[in-house]
Write a structure and sequence with these properties.
The structure holds two protein chains of two kinds. By secondary structure, chain A is an all-beta fold. Helix content of chain A is about 0%, strand content about 50%. In chain A, strands 2, 4, 5, 6, 9, 10 and 11 form a seven-stranded mixed sheet that branches. The radius of gyration of chain A is 13 Å and the shape is globular. The chains are: A mainly beta, B mainly beta. At the A-B interface, β4, β5, β9 and β10 of A face β4 and β8 of B.
């Protein structure tokens, strides 16, 4: 099992550009989520999904879109990048109904 | 979900037991206590969770007080690789979200 994979590992964007962060899991987990982590802080939930076709907002959803067309994939789209979105982004998956989540290695995004 | 309070940082000597405390005085009856850790720049790693009984797995033990207002994560024989930020999180059964605080930075010293 590869677990949770994320691409790219690093990305630099200019203000106003858009991009998609990819996340995939091979554990057949229903639950997937995206977090961002700013320096010295804990993780904050952006969006989550409890199954294909079902998504919901977390604590900090503004500026981000998600979709879940398959169980395996949960991409995160930045619509118009801003310097405030400079952060490390983590994707996670888990079985619905538990708090045991498995995290990817992260994407380090810098917006200039 | 209940809020948690953890010390900002702790040291422990290699080979000794590391005891990480967490206060969750407003925890309600159906909320679980979860522990994760994050080794420098990596994705967080699940360690253990419990409701009211003490729990043990291959990584750690979780001791929850009888009134459930606090808990302690125990790493029985700490190694240098256990240096990480440890997060204590309280989660309700029906809540999908994990609310992350700043955690405790544990430094294992040789």
């Amino acid at each position: 099992n590869a677990g949770v994979t994320q691409t790219p590992k690093f990305q630099v964007l200019k203000t106003g550009q858009s991009m998609t962060l990819q996340c995939a899991q091979d554990m057949n987990h229903e639950y997937m989520s995206w977090y961002r982590q700013d320096p010295g802080m804990g993780l904050r939930l952006i969006h989550y999904s409890v199954g294909a076709g079902i998504t919901d907002q977390g604590e900090v959803p503004n500026g981000y879109n998600v979709s879940r067309s398959t169980t395996e994939d949960f991409p995160l789209r930045l619509l118009s990048a801003a310097p405030s979105q400079t952060s490390v982004y983590f994707c996670a998956s888990g079985r619905t109904g538990t708090g045991e989540q498995y995290f990817g290695p992260g994407t380090r995004l810098t917006v200039t | 979900d209940a809020k948690t309070t953890q010390p900002t940082s702790m040291d422990c000597a290699e080979g000794r037991a590391a005891n990480l405390p967490c206060n969750h005085s407003t925890i309600s009856g159906n909320e679980y206590v979860y522990w994760y850790r994050q080794i420098h720049s990596q994705g967080p790693q699940y360690i253990i969770h419990g409701l009211k009984n003490n729990e043990t797995n291959e990584m750690a033990s979780l001791i929850i007080t009888e009134d459930r207002k606090s808990s302690t994560l125990i790493l029985p024989h700490a190694t240098l690789r256990d240096t990480a930020v440890y997060y204590c999180i309280v989660r309700g059964v029906s809540n999908y979200q994990l609310i992350w605080g700043a955690g405790t930075k544990l430094i294992i010293k040789p």
